[in-house]
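Chain A, query sequence.
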Amino acid sequence: MLSPGQIHQQVVRLTADLVGLSLCNHQNFPSLRDLGHGIKEVGLGVKSNMSVALKNVSYRDVYDELERTKTYNLRMLDGALIQMMYRFNNEEIEAHRLAFFPSPYLEGNRSRSQKILARLAIYRVRSPHGYATSFTLRDLGSHAA
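Chain A, predicted structure.
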C-alpha cells in the first residue's frame, strides 16, 4: 500500500507532467495535511467546499461553482475539471475522490471536444519520473448537460 507521502508525490508529478505537456491551463498542486489522530489528507492546494457537488442544483451551477472557487486539481484545455483527493487513517486509504467534470459549455463545439477526447483516449504520458499513465477517457460529452 502506498503511503500518503507517496500518493502526494504521484499527484504532484502527474500535475507537473500535464502542465509540461500543455494539456491543462490552470492547476492547483496538491497539499498533504496532517489533521492529527492518524488522519492525513492529500487534497487540493486551496481551501475547498465540496458541498456544492452534493446539492440538488443543475450540473452547470455545480461546474460554475467549482470553477469559480478553483476547487479542482486540473483545469484542462477544454474546460474539464479534474479532482484527486485522498484521506488516510493510520496510513490506510479511508476515502478518496477522483472526479471528472466535463465543461457544460462545449455543446456548441461538440466536434472539437470529441477530437480532444479522442486524442486523450489514446494518449500515453511517459514521465521522466519512471511511470506511465494511460488516458482511457471515453466520450463524456453526453454527460455535460
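The longest strand covers residues 92-101. The chain has one domain: 4-138.
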